[in-house]
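Hi everyone,

Forwarding the result from last night's run.
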Amino acid sequence: MLVGIAAVATGLVAALGGFAPTAAARPHRPGEVVGLLRWDLSVHRAELVPGDADHEPEVRVWFTVVNTTESTLSQPWGLVTLMLPEGTPEVNDWTIPGRRGGFDPDVPQQAYV
């Protein structure tokens, strides 16, 4: 199952050119750096987080995001979308554990969607 999730994760990056209009999704290999206008992204792994009495199980795809400009930028909401099988809600909110504030230039940040 994780192999299937990893295959889905390779198609994670659907936006090209920073905040430019999105292009059709295309697959990327894990660890491959996808250079956008203001950001570099690379997907590392996918995992299934089991549910419990209070939470549904969830798929998490971990990636690194790097601001490639010369100034601090805010989080680029909508830049990353996780595409799951038909009938599954689209997910594009991503989390950066233990982090608040802007993205400084050339500082890699681990995140997941």
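The chain has one domain: 1-113.

Cheers,
N.
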